[in-house]
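Everyone, study these two lines:
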Amino acid sequence: MKIGKLTSTKPTLTLLDAVALTVGIVIGAGIFETPSLVATNAGSSVVTLLIWCLGGGISLVGALCYAELATTYPHPGGSYYYFQRAFGNSIAFLFAWARLTVMQTGSVVLLAFVFGDYASQIYSLGEYSSSMYAAIAIIIFSGLNFLGIRQGKWIQNCLALTQVLGLLLVIIVGLVFTPSSTPSELSSTTTQTNVGLALVFVLLTYGGWNEAAHISAELRDVRQNMSRSLLWSISAIALLYLLINFAYLHGLGFSHIITSQAVAADLMRSTIGNWGAVLISLLISVATLCSLNATIFTGARTNYALGTDFRLFAWLGRWEARSKTPTHALLVQGAICLMLVLLGTFTPNGFKTMVEYTTPVFWFFFLLTGISLFVLRRREPKILRPFQVPLYPLTPILFCGICVYMLQSSLVYTGVGAMVGVAVLLAGVPFLFYMRQTKRN
């Protein structure tokens, strides 16, 4: 991919701005879906809470590594740009291919299944209700973006509002309004313990810190405020996640959590009745649709960039002037998403399948990002680094070790979704060889 000249950025963000942005980026719809999957694999309520704490620590380690890269190489290309500088165009192309076929599209479908699970709590469409809602949401919002209908800023802002409102509502209800008859099984255990897979779901829920680190290029007094903003924001997120999981355990009991398909709705139903389940399901559905729309919007534009920079994919680089949208990129993205919905439909849990599908590829490129930090330090030792990762090289070594463990866990402990995701990533290799051969000729 060709990288154009970058306009210099000015440090305009305060410490408070950075914390608010990071919290807004990281907290998503996943916290309403993953707790039951985490508890199932953690094996006990105590281990469940400890794993959520561990996830916050791992996220902080990773964010510190990304922060050095983001402040040293402030570019909207993000990881793509780091890969290009450290490893060349081949790895950068595979990353772009992965975003088109696995990471971005998988994220869209993952959100669509969260919407489907909670929309089904309001009105079920039958046996495949979640998949049907997921497909409908993808078709509608891809269509709106295709036609160039841009939702106003206030609609996107409702994402943060509804997510925080939903979190606070669930926490208050779970801790305060639990009926005395509800079994608060805070010490319950099961025979199944799979910490690696539990961490896969926890770190998915913490996902977004890699994007949050990119704001460091515009942060005032970056040497001091970078580490502070990361520490404060991730600590706040970890506290919220611990509180909501404690609320689930207190309000439902451990045995109920591990069998729940929509844990927040079940908590509201068991405490304040069906209207509470409908209310929280509605809030989560709206928040998820906002995230879904934003992911479709940004994903289509990164795929459009792939088409403009690689001749083989030039058909993705068509921009419709009238609607001001990358029409071909939207169509291809929507088609891939619908195929992934079909994949999730024929598995016991569509959301879990999408986690399996995307996670190995995510952690593979996270590992490459950690390695690129070492490569660029050695290759470009004299470049100004406004923020340097603390305790170098121990911190990035720890991050790379975590990435290897998570990559191994996502491959060993997950099912067919992981194999399909890896196979799709590898399917990009022949395109790479073809482009190399064409360039030689």
Summary: The two ends are 19 Å apart (CA to CA).
